[in-house]
Every structure is written in C-alpha cells, then in structure tokens.
Amino acid sequence: MEAADEWLLQSLRLYRDLHTFELQAPTRLIEWARGDRVCVAGYGQSNGNEILQLIPPPTLLTKETQGLCPERDFKVECGGFSERPVYSLKYVPDTSLLVTSGPPDSSLQVWQVSAEDSDVIKSVSTIATENGTGQSWAKIDTISARAPWVLHGSRLDRVQITEVESRKNVYTAGIQAPQGSEELSSLAFLDCSLLLLCSATGRLCLADTRQPQGLTEAVPAPSVPSSEHWCMGTQHAAQGSQPSSQPVARLSSRGLLALTDLRKTSEFLAVAKARVPSPGSGAEFLCVSWAPALEGYLAISGFDGTVHVYDTQSWDSSGREAEPIFVHKGHIFGGAGGSRDPPLVTVHTWHLQKPRTLLSAASDGSLHVWDWVQPCGKCG
Q1: Which terminus of the chain has fewer Cβ atoms in its 10 Å neighbourhood, N or C?
Q2: Which pTM value belongs to this model?
Q3: Is it the case that residue 348 has pLDDT exceeding 70?
Q4: Which residues contact 64 (CB under 8 A, 6 or more apart)?
C-alpha cells in the first residue's frame, strides 16, 4: 500500500474533521477577521497578489461537529489585488480594515473590506516609514484600544505605533547599536500599553508605551549557534490576568523550543527539542503558536510538510526531545499526486473557540482545516 493511501485510511480515525481546499496561489498567512471570516493572500506573483476574505465551511462556524455536511468548502466572500507580495496581514479589531506588509520595503498598506453589497477589498492608504527604503518588510500587529493602531517595524532599532486611519505616529522606540541592527522576526501587542518584540537571533525586548525609557531587553538571545533563526508565539491574557503572566514560546530553525515567563526572565520556564528534520534552505516560514482554548498546547510548522502539536505542561528545562501529541501530514499526502517536491507548510493558526481545530496552508496552495482525535487516556 502506498504511503498516501495508508494515510488516507488512517485519517478516518485520526481526525474528527478534515477539510481541504485549493487556493489559486499559496499563502503565507491565515488571519481571522470580523464575523468569523478568514483572510489569505498571495506572496509570489509578479502580476498581482490576490487578497481574499473567505467564509469557512459551516462545520467550522458551529461549536459542535455536525457530522456530514453538504457544504464542506470555503467560499470567497470578497477580494482585492496587491501589486506587491503580501507577507503579513492583520485585521484591525472592531473595524472593516486590514493592514498588510511585504517586500520590497517596510511600508504598510491599509485596505477596506467593502459593505455586504460589494465583493471588493479596496486599497485606501499607505503608511510610509522613515528610512523604510532598503529595509526588509515590516512585521505587524494590530489593536483597537484608544483608536485603531498598528505596531510595525523591521529591525530592533526602530519600531513604532501608527494610528491606522489618520496615519499619525503615536509611539516610537528602539535599541541602538549593536543590537539595534538585528532583524525583527516577530512582534506583538500584549495589551494596549505593553509591546513584545523578538529578534531573528532570539532576543526578547519589552516596551511600555507609558514609560519614557522605551525599549528594554527582557531576555537575551539564547546561547546557541548564531546561524539559528528564531520566531516567537504569544498568548492573549485571560480576563483579569496580567498580560506578562502568559508564557512566551520561542522556536529556532533547528527545532529548539524555549518557554519564558516574562515576570521571571532570568531562567527558562521550559526547554525542549522538537522532533523535526534538520534545517533546510532557511527559516522563512517558521511558525509557533499557542492554542487559545487548550491550556499548555502549542503548534509548530515551517520545517517540512507537517504541523506538530505539543502539550507543554510536563516539560522541564532539560532540553530533551519532546514527543508531539499529533502530527498533521495532510499537506504531504493530500495534494496533487504529480508534484515532484513535497510542499512546505507556510503557516498555521488555531481556531479561536474550537480547542483542537487548526487551519494550515502550504506552498502548493493547499489550505486545510483539521480537528484531531484526542487519544484515549489523554482526553481533556
């Protein structure tokens, strides 16, 4: 029996739900938007990259799996075209706006998702950045607190918050040389005042917009070979808890996972080695994310055609290899049979309410939604 056929048989018992969808072009982002919509965008077309807002299959919108359902596909609700590749896209909460970034520089594009009687996502403005030409594309995050804000930057020496609609600069911070020249791999609003940044070398920096001192190094880069590339994943704080109480996960291009409590940065909360292949051509699609509705669970991707899910609750600081709870192999076996090279997973994200449901996309244009079956004895 071929491996693809064997996986197909196994999938009947491995998944509670599995939807596959083929995009016209691959995406490196999956973003939840208003009304439980999902946004994707192309990143490699020279003649324009499509930004799409999709309506998920009905089973993804209900809290309970409803068994067989005639509507199993995503439906395109509206779309637009970007002249530049879209490497990152963020929905601005409580608005109909999207912010995107991508090469060749660190400027941002602002988009309006049109009203229900239109199927167009239209470009409304550009947020230019000082000395942005020649810098790599900007990492971005959004929040709607006092006003719709976007946090953006490409290096540690300059990150800023810009008001999306007025394009007014609200806050600027940075670390000066030598660390300032380090490329940013990830950044996030922990709340409307607290910002967290991760450099490509794994350095974590914090900034409080209420304090004058700006950006401060919270956790130095891990003591590992400098060739390793790092990214981070953060959790949204539970209602009533401090944003800094949520552990931060950092993932390296060699599969090292380091968990940090920002209230006690002198030591790691836990360190583990993921069971992933040795690094290939780079860490372009490295991704780590915490489950929003399943305590202690995180997922990683970007090493091959799989997504690994881990339960971190039993981890310690030994750095031992960790056993994944589940490995999604659908992008390897579920695509077109004629493709020579196996696809690479470009991004994954969790469903916001369904504990074990994830969305993942790969370099062959495949988009999957899957809900794995928890093994007996590990039900929670």
Answers
A1: N
A2: 0.91
A3: yes
A4: none
